[in-house]
Amino acid sequence: MERSPAVDSCWPADLVRLYRTERTTYVRVAYLLTGHREVAEEVVQDAFVACGQRWVELERPRAYLRTAVVNRSRSWLRRLQLQRDRERPGETVDEMEPDELWDALGRLDERRRAAIVLRFYHDLPDVEIAEALDCRPATVRTLVHRGLQDLRREVDR
Fold first, then answer.
1. CA atoms of 17 and 137, how far apart (whole Å)
2. What is the pTM of this model?
């Protein structure tokens, strides 16, 4: 990754280090949630900017970033769904994905998808997933369990 003196000088060194070490991971998480690389990169960039603006008051910047990425991804999906709902029937073109599991994951509701991505891709414990999704750990276990059931049904079709 190229060094940018302008970026290095305007952000705290710890934030710059966090960006360099964690950016790719968060982009992958956002991609798994949104299905769009460009959107994922923008979501992560916005999350890092928000983190930088609140840096001095953050006790756990990684947790803040993780939550920001998940919430921004979910917001983007909600906006996309609203846009699709407003379109007239027959105007949309369905994109075909070659990956059966990816297709099945995309058919899950956003909370179940987020819980599964954070659990199995980002390897987070229930407590941290609950924090990112703003729910209880027991709810996370339920979301993951039901999401996996839904995935199994989708793949078995």
1. 30
2. 0.63
